[in-house]
Amino acid sequence: MCSLFRRGQWLLAVALSGLSLNAAPILRVCADPGNLPYSNKAEQGLENHLAQILAADLGMKLEYVWWEQRKNFIGKSLNAGACDAILGVPAALDEVAVTRPYYQSTYVWVQRRERKPQLSSLYDERLAHLHIAVHIVDDSYAPPAQALAQSGLAGNLVPFNLYGDGANTPARLIEAVRRGDVDAGLAWGPLAGYFAGSDLELTPVSPDHFGLVPFVYPIAVGVRRDDKELRDKLDGAIGRQCAAIQQLLSDFKIPQAGERRLSCATALSASALR
After folding, report:
1. Please, which residues bridge with residue 127 across strands?
2. What would the pLDDT profile of 15-66 be if each residue is shown by its tens digit?
3. What CA–CA distance (Å, rounded) separates 88 from 59?
4. Calpha distance 178→196 (Å, rounded)
5. CATH hierarchy code of domain 24-103+217-273
6. pLDDT at res. 258
């Protein structure tokens, strides 16, 4: 009886060992639980869908570590070991190792279609007579709003918090333009593309920089700086799944920008950038 029991234990251990060996590796992604169009707990966001595409390509099981994207988000989550990757980071970010960019976008003017002609330049003389909705993050203006403030138009700016107590907080700026509470708005392109409807016009901000501050950013996946192996795997998956990613960007109405419209097909791989 004891021999049979011991044999049963051994067989169970072997079976469990086999399951462990055959289990898919896990890709842990840190994501905000309420930050559309990027991510939410219902996994409806752009980055949720992208994470699914990449994990499936690599044969990995996707798991989320839900973490509100606030000040020092990367340091407290990814770089503290809470997860393996964060999607949607600027490709120039020094805190992480990044893949090739999978899109490049810019800040845009948000205006009602009846405005003629549409604003585009930060140096348009009409701005002195307009109320302009802008996003603030951690008590700081978004980059193009900083340019307007430094140009003497701080009194024309109407601030809206980018983060708040609602799932669609970024949309409040868009709604203010739609209602006519302000004359125009400035917003990051992916936010504007997702929340604006056909009644609003989106126009890239020009010029595409102010001093040394750019308004156009290539966006990539970030991992810890010492995890180049995972970075290269994700980079390869982005290249292989480029067509699916481009369709995803189109579905989420992400404005593409830059003199050379960067895509996962044309962007240099992470290994080429080393």
Report:
1. none
2. 444 444 458 899 999 999 999 999 999 999 999 999 999 999 999 999 999 9
3. 21
4. 9
5. 3.40.190.10
6. 67
Is the whole-model pTM more than 0.90? no
User: Which among 35, 32, 33 is positioned nearest to 168, based on CA atoms?
Assistant: 35
Helix (H) or strand (E) holding 244: helix 242-251
Residue 167: per-residue pLDDT? 61
Helix (H, G, I), strand (E, B) or coil at 178: helix
Handedness of CA 146, 100, 30, 42 (dihedral sign): positive
| Arithmetic mean of pLDDT over the chain | 88
Q: What are phi and psi of 19, to 5 degrees?
A: -60, -40
CATH class of this structure's domain 105-214: alpha beta
Rounded CA-CA distance 252/103 in Å is 12
Query: pLDDT exceeding 90 applies to what percent of the chain?
Result: 73
Q: Are 61 and 52 in contact (CB under 8 A)?
A: no
Confidence of residue 81 (pLDDT cuts 50, 70, 90): very high
- Both tokens of 233, joined, read 């795997």
- Is the separation of the CB atoms in 160 and 172 below 8 Å? yes
- Kindly state the greatest CA–CA separation across the chain: 93
CB 137 within 8 A of CB 188: no
CATH topology of 24-103+217-273 equal to that of 105-214? yes
Domain boundaries, the chain: 24-103+217-273, 105-214
How much is the pLDDT for 163? 81
> Is 7 a residue whose pLDDT tops 60?
no
- Tokens coding 62: 């996707």
Tell me the CA end-to-end span of the chain in Å, nearest whole number: 62
d(CA 150, CA 148): 5
